[in-house]
Specification:
This protein is of the alpha/beta class and about 475 residues long. The strands form 3 sheets. Strands 4, 14, 15, 16, 17, 18, 19, 20 and 21 form a 9-stranded mixed sheet that branches. Strands 5-6-7-8-9-11-12-13 form an 8-stranded parallel barrel, surrounded by 7 helices. Strand 17 and strand 18 (about 405-415) form a beta hairpin. Helix 5 packs across helix 6. The chain contains 12 helices and 21 strands. It has helices spanning about 55-60, 70-90, 105-115, 125-135, 150-160, 170-180, 220-230, 250-270, 300-315, 330, 370-375, 465-470, and strands at about 40, 45-50, 50-55, 65-70, 95-100, 120, 140-145, 165, 185-195, 215, 235-240, 280, 320-325, 335-350, 355-360, 380, 390-395, 405-415, 420-425, 445-450, 455-460. The longest helix has 23 residues, at about 70-90. The site of pyridoxal-5'-phosphate (PLP) has 18 residues, from helix 10.
Length: about 475
């Protein structure tokens, strides 16, 4: 609602809440489907994770803090691995799940993924080193990126990553040169732009034609890339790769991209005489940030995708290659909430009929840029007590020097929310710590992993000393 609309007529019961946000039956209750699996509220209304109260987490580690339910993170990874392996068993002997580390990666997470039997998709030298330090076997790592540096490519070949997903003709030549110099053979996949308009935010769609990723299928570039790889020494073409975008809820986009990419797979067989052993259908599976989202389970997704691949392969008369996928958000996202402390509360009149509570917390766009960047919606709850106050339309904002510094645009909080209260925002495991900045010289929050009644740091809080450590003092 804008100021110039202040004179508009409003129906009785009008409030500043958007239509999709339902009036809460109990403003203290946790919305099912938004929280990690060991998260509850105790009798006093205190949020707990794996039986550890957030009041204790705040006291020990401070706020703002990302709190990850390790059991949940691991279980989601395992659910994907088992569901895809089972669904694709008869189609192509099983499937591999590459956790997309860009969603959130630290040494501990790399270790969890190695232990849970997943593969890992990295997209930079930094992610590669983190994966290795976490004990992920190099053979289970895939390297992505539209502009990998020579140093990154050399390191990837040196440690023997399982695959490099090539994104340009220049890169094909670079990897070939590195392989030849080292006298090794490098497995590569071709990133294919399948020309699919994924139904998601423009900034996170990646398979339409007019963007930077991959080789276009429709112009013949993708086939040309395959020909080039086959002709270059030191390269082994493993297969084709397509990723259509992120936060996607329907399988129709995957169906279209699978059909097109498998069409190219058939052409490579027919014209180059090569039965490529693999295909990767990417990640992008959506999660529930609010009650407006209704994601599919990994089992349903896997079953639908297995049916799509089997049908398309039958139609093309090709032997189904081994399938892999790359979920990031769907594994990391729901496992984590961000814990903040309230600093100030303001009631702001949005027009003649309605007001909104502006609840300012000790974080903001530096620890969650997604609201400002994509217009993402989040939910939240009062985490340190229960309240009998009536629900008030609220907006959780940060402490940065921007009016767009919003974390949760629309939510009901108890009207008596006050300084010193704790607020928890679920669904912040993906692309929050990973995209965190030090804007306004704000040290980045720690990541606290909780499991079996014990909380521990897996990423410590940044300090002002960390921030200053990069400055070159010319005094
Ligand atoms: C190549 C590739 N694979 C996997 C992912 C993971 O996407 P998501 O976190 O939406 O599953 C991305 C990011 O969108 C990506 O670019
Ligand atoms: N960072 C984006 C998704 C892009 C994924 C990387 N290809 C998000 O927060 O939704």
């Amino acid at each position: 609602m804008h100021a110039h609309e202040a004179g508009a007529l409003h129906a009785p019961g009008y409030s500043a809440a958007p239509e999709w946000l339902p009036w809460p039956a109990d403003v203290n209750a946790l919305e099912p489907g938004l929280w990690a699996r060991t998260v509850r509220k105790d009798d006093e209304g205190v949020l707990t994770v794996a039986d550890v109260p957030v009041t204790a987490i705040a006291a020990e580690f401070g706020t703002a803090a990302y709190v990850v339910d390790e059991t949940d993170f691991r279980a989601r990874a395992r659910d994907f691995r088992e569901a895809y392996d089972a669904a694709f068993a008869e189609v192509c002997g099983g499937a591999d799940v590459y956790y997309a580390g860009k969603a959130f990666l630290c040494t501990a997470v790399a270790r969890w993924m190695a232990e849970e039997g997943l593969h890992l998709d990295v997209c930079s030298g930094g992610e590669l080193e983190t994966a290795l330090r976490g004990g992920m076997p190099a053979a289970r790592i895939g390297l992505h990126g539209n502009n990998k540096s020579m140093a990154e490519l050399e390191r990837a070949v040196e440690v023997g990553v399982g695959r490099i997903v090539v994104d340009s003709h220049t890169e094909i030549d670079r990897v070939s040169a590195i392989a030849r110099e080292r006298g090794v053979e490098v497995g590569v996949m071709v990133r294919v732009t399948a020309g699919v308009e994924a139904h998601t935010h423009e900034f996170i769609a990646t398979a339409h034609e007019d963007q930077k990723f991959g080789f276009s299928l429709s112009t013949g570039e993708a086939f040309a890339a395959c020909e080039r790889i086959v002709a270059r020494p030191g390269l082994r073409l493993l297969g084709l790769h397509s990723h259509i975008g992120s936060q996607i809820f329907e399988t129709s986009g995957f169906e279209l991209s699978a059909r097109r990419v498998l069409g190219l797979h058939a052409r490579v067989r027919d014209e180059l005489g090569l039965a490529l052993p693999e295909i990767d259908l990417g990640g992008g599976f959506g999660i529930a940030y609010t009650t407006a989202h209704d994601p599919m389970t990994p089992a349903d997704l896997a079953a639908q995708m297995a049916e799509i691949v089997a049908r398309e392969c039958r139609g093309l008369g090709v032997e189904p290659p081994r399938v892999s996928i790359e979920p990031g958000r769907a594994i990391a996202g729901p496992s984590t909430f961000t814990l903040y402390e309230v600093g100030t509360v303001k009631r702001v009149q949005v027009d003649r009929a309605a007001s909104r509570l502006y609840v300012a917390v000790d974080g903001g766009m530096s620890d969650n840029i997604r609201t400002a960047l994509y217009g993402a919606d989040y939910s939240c709850t009062l985490a340190n007590r229960r309240s009998d106050a009536h629900p008030a339309v609220s907006r959780v904002v940060g402490r940065h020097c921007e009016s767009g510094d919003v974390i949760v645009r629309d939510e009901y909080l108890p009207a008596d929310v006050r300084p010193g209260d704790l607020i928890a925002v679920p669904g912040t495991g993906a692309y929050c710590r990973a995209m965190a900045s030090q804007y306004n010289h704000t040290p980045r929050p720690p990541v606290v992993a909780v499991r079996d009644g014990r909380a521990r740091l897996v990423v410590r809080r940044e300090t002002v000393e960390d921030l200053l450590a990069l400055d070159v003092d010319e005094a």
